[in-house]
User: Fold Bifunctional protein FolD from Saccharibacillus kuerlensis.
Amino acid sequence: MTTAQIISGKQVSDEIRQNLKTEVESLAEQGCVPGLAVVLVGEDPASQVYVRNKAKACEDLGFYSEVHRLEADTSQEDLLELVHKLNEQSNINGILVQLPLPKQIEEKAIINAIAPSKDVDGFHPVNVGNLVIGDDSLLPCTPAGVIELIKHTGIEISGKHAVVIGRSNIVGKPVSMLLQRENATVTMCHSRTANMKELTRQADILVVAVGRANFVDASYIKPGAVVIDVGINRLETGKLAGDVDFESASSVSGPITPVPGGVGPMTITMLMKNTLLAAKRAHGLS
Ligand code: NAP
Assistant:
């Protein structure tokens, strides 16, 4: 049985949402209501669930929201036209185009068309560039959620050795940049890393975003290290599994996130936080 502290993403997420709700109420008195547009192309079941959850979060927090559902055979031109329209719409502060997109549409073209000030996913090259150079930007949601969870443990990030397994544009790279911004010394591992366990066993903070169920066990972990599992993998049994073997890892780790209930709940919460920030900036209030 684990004696490690379990970091509840649900609890941290609920706390942040409560604060956001209070802020939305006071902003409404100043005539500022954050607005989020979510665009779904096609009928991918997982995407439909994500879109529904995002609309529900908006409703719960008092945001204005629009959901645009487009046919699976929508052309890139038509999607771009909608994005341009939403860029101009003053009651919309955040635009989220649900990925993945059908193959006739180039994701990069769509991401690049979203106004950086409304890019609440934090994927636009302007926001990515600002993150790298340390300027104000809209941060990508899952990586920002990872940092919130680490901070919630009360463990100081500054001066620690953080190891990130994974270097994708949506998780590994931005998490590494954010950890570095918090003054951690960061090592990034990927599929070509040699002697990975030697590196991960030095980590005070280990973030795992590999996309392989139960990839990291106790043998990768320094006793007492903080372990954040970003992975969401659907097993053949239908159950969800993280990238970390929780049973094994938690026998040596310090604070550790479970799957589900760890990083997952943070992503939409950080999306809401970004939309609120974008709304405040649009109203000259930040
Ligand atoms: P990805 O694009 O597939 O990237 C996986 C990364 O892991 C790559 O950088 C890859 O290295 C590395 N990798 C693969 N096999 C490895 C190995 N044997 N040893 C070391 N590194 C290895 O995945 P992603 O989009 O970053 O997502 C990672 C996980 O997070 C997935 O399970 C995904 O479902 C989950 N996720 C969760 C959320 C959330 O809201 N909680 C959001 C996004 C993603 P190379 O670069 O060398 O190929």
